[in-house]
Amino acid sequence: MMSMSSQFPILVAIAPLMAAPFCALIRGNTLPWALTTIISAFTFYVSLSLLFAVTAGGPISYELGGWAPPWGIEYVVDPLSGFMLVLISGISTGVLLFARESITKEVPAHQLGLFFAAYLLSLTGMLGICITGDTFNIFVFLEIMSLSSYALIAMGERTDRRALTAAFQYLIIGTVGATFYLIGIGLIYMMTGTLNIADIAMRFPEIEDTRPILAAVGFIVIGIGIKLALFPLHAWLPNSYTYAPNIITAFFAGTATKVSVYLLIRFIFTVFGPNYSFAGLGLMDILMPLAILAFLSMSAVAVYQTNLKRLLAYSSVAQLGYIVLGIALASESGLTASIIHIFNHAIVKTGLFLSVGCMFYVAGSTYLKDLQGIGRRMPVTTFGFVLGGLGLIGVPLTPGFISKWYLVVAVLEKGSYFGYALVAALMMSSLLAVIYIWRVVEVAYFRPAPEGTETQEAPMSLIIPTWIFILGSFYFGIETSFNVGFAKAAAAFLMGGV
Amino acid sequence: MISFGFFNYWIFIILLMIGLYTVMSRSNLVKKMIGLSLFQISVFLFYISMGKVTGGTAPIVVENTADAVTTAYSNPLPHVLILTAIVVGIATTALGLSLVVRIKESFGTIDEEDILEMEDGA
Predict the structure, then answer these.
(1) Average confidence score pLDDT of chain A
(2) Alpha helices in A103-244 (DSSP H)
């Protein structure tokens, strides 16, 4: 008899998928949320056991329906995908703990079942992208994730009707991106006759000099670049993050773009191979300038924002610049820095967006002008926000410091003046982060609260999950063996090309 | 002379570009959706074309028949894949159009430029 744990790879994706229609049928304020949280916690448990199984016994391959790869669809858990699964399901579970009370202010009660059904579907998509070893399956999961996220973003309509136009804009851009990806894998299928990632990777060297493959790489990198909000393809992100319901912003900031980063890493390092991507094609010459422009220009734009959510959204695009820079360095240390930053930024940014969610719950707005004196009105929440902000800047003892440290070390490996110039650019961007976080601190602590507002904290059910992320970020900034250890293992695995 | 064998692929690229241009150039949201559908559908043509094998027939194995001389079959896999992509395309169009309906209810217009002017005022 087969044990339960041998079915874990499929359970990760199929549990939320199967729960979604049930969730859509349930009515009431609490039940849909409870079902979603239980399912999400279950995927978190399964992801953790998969990650530990991979660490102990090497990559796991699961054949869907017993069809052997490359004909059947194969699910693969390797150090990188296991790490991503834990990150996504963990953040989802943490955000859901926050959701129960906060979402009732933003979504009407009779829509909660549908809302959480869409949430489960987008969780399915993200987990599926990470676990599948089949390129077409990735497209399907990508669209499951995207379609449900358009719907979720549009749910912010009740607070601000611009959520609708933001969702529509994201739908147009996102579909173009996913279709580019589809064309890319079509071209690869024409040349290799296979859709299985491992099989493509094996056949790739024979055909890597042909023109269809060149076109395929172009389509895939740009398609993923759109989903990743790679500068200058990021136009959809600030609007979507600003107008989406708060828990959706917190959830997507930590996971949606990170999943796309995972795809970029997977294609560059596993499918195309670092030799072809960097030595043959020179992808770093395209990615690196874009990454540098991303973190310099977007940090500068963030300084001028008047809406706190939009400020953090631009900062997300900038932080994605750091992650892409790590990939573009084309070295094991760069890739390690990149994976560490995926993890660290996800935790810090989710914590920050949850703090903003608390402020919204009480103040009813995320515009800085409405948040004056919030530091005295909501001391616990605002203090959490400031601690998270320190993590974003990269102050020692925070995870931001750890990832920037690894990034600077990786950059300096390049040697020469180019390396020093890059470090200077990184420092400059961190300085800009100090400025935009300081703007919030100034508004929160040094401006008088408007007349008629009184000291009122958010309920405990919101503050506790927020502080779990804030304190968790400090934990991973001090005791780094989990994030750095697994990131190093994943990078070594990818560069080893096993 | 450009080989006539690439005819389908030329049409695929032309449709793709018409679709993308429509998405970018029109400010009417419904027209944008039409462009987006065209953009996606051109890719279906691309997949279907690549599965075709010259002289190939439908991939049904015929056993023990006298006239089973045909050994070339068209590749069914791209066709199956594109069935999935068609479903995704329908879902996207449906979701996009329902968003347009909500935008019309909320803003009173489906012209992007009018909406942008409103947002600046708001």
Answers:
(1) 89
(2) 112-131, 135-154, 162-192, 197-207, 211-228, 236-243
